[in-house]
Q: What sequence folds into this?
């Protein structure tokens, strides 16, 4: 058992966030004109910024260097790309720019060759970054942010509808597994960027913050070893008096999923017809994790913690999940679906509580707003 567990841990490390590696395909030139692959920075938290040496925001170099010195040993890398497209405020060669930055701000983070970030000759890296995170708007409570917004609005009333880089010192935060997490405009405060960097540097916190409910999946089953690891993480959740009042059933049988889906389609033809991408009644997920608890409601809290452990473990392994209640109600109420429950072999005295759809995600949902006002600290 110990050998199996060690093998599962190794598999988790190998497969971690395997679907989020696109940024590592790009190459850029360093300040010596040499090609550098971004795959060299795999496993690092990246802050990618287009800079200029004669801009009103140029003093941000000092803030960026302070951020770099504080977190570089924890895995932060700041990648600096000088760009002369905004007011021609990055003149000179990359060597001259580097000399200026080291002399005036003593920067230690790597600088790369000058690039375009917009237009015909824009760097493919920036084409990718903009496709992931569009323009988020200037901070209008900031005097400079309001000034920039007014300036661009006069030139184009809809300037904010395009993802183009608007000005110097726009920044992109990239997670350890290659996800473009956030985009910051030059008026955004360094304190907020630092708070987000701290999240991404902590693998547990970054996994929690990255997890979303996924409702579109690739037509690809999850490897048995991964499912086994996800469930192992689940059953190691806290449990009152260690009673572990749950029963877990993992469905890997695609034929079973399809068979019960046919029953669902006959009972819900209008709903199925409204969804042109409908494949099965479980959000098209290729695998299911069914969680059962004692009838009468006992064990619901423990089962909730079990499910959260499994969803976070899945997220860390590049998998998507969605907690489903609708299919549970259908399975428990439709006599034609009884064969599915029979296959689950649910013990007497237990009932199906919820189902986790699990699979390789075919979407990357944005985070929905959270109401921080609901939290109060009693001191």
A:
């Amino acid at each position: 058992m110990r050998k199996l567990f060690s093998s599962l841990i190794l598999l988790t490390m190998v497969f971690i966030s395997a679907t989020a590696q696109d940024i590592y395909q790009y190459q850029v030139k360093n300040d010596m004109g040499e090609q550098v692959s971004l795959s060299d920075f795999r496993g690092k938290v990246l802050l990618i910024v287009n800079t200029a040496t004669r801009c009103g925001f140029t003093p941000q170099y000092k803030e960026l260097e302070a951020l770099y010195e504080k977190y570089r040993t924890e895995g932060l890398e700041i990648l600096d790309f000088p760009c002369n497209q905004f007011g021609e405020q990055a003149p000179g060669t990359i060597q001259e720019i580097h000399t200026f930055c080291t002399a005036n701000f003593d920067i230690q983070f790597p600088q790369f060759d000058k690039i375009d970030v917009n237009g015909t000759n824009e760097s493919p890296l920036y084409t990718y970054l903009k496709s992931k995170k569009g323009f988020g708007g200037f901070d209008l409570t900031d005097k400079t942010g309001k000034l920039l917004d007014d300036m661009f609005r006069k030139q184009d009333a809809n300037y904010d509808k395009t993802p183009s880089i608007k000005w110097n010192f726009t920044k992109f935060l990239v997670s350890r597994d290659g996800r473009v997490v956030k985009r910051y405009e030059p008026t955004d405060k360094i304190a907020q960027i630092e708070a987000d960097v701290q999240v991404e540097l902590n693998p547990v916190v970054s996994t929690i913050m990255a997890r979303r409910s996924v409702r579109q999946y690739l037509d690809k089953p999850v490897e048995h070893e991964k499912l086994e690891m996800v469930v192992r993480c689940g059953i190691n959740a806290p449990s009152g008096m260690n009673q572990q009042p749950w029963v877990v059933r993992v469905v890997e049988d695609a034929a079973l999923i399809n068979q019960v889906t046919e029953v669902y389609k006959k009972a819900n033809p209008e709903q199925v017809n409204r969804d042109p991408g409908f494949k099965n009644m479980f959000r098209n997920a290729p695998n299911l994790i069914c969680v059962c608890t004692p009838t009468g409601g006992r064990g619901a809290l423990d089962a909730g913690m079990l499910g959260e452990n499994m969803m976070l473990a899945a997220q860390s392994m590049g998998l998507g999940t969605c907690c489903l209640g609708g299919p549970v109600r259908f399975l428990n109420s439709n006599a034609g679906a009884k064969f599915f429950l029979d296959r689950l072999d649910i013990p007497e005295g237990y009932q199906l509580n919820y189902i986790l759809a699990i699979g390789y995600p075919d979407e990357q949902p944005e985070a929905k707003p959270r109401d921080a006002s609901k939290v109060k600290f009693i001191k």
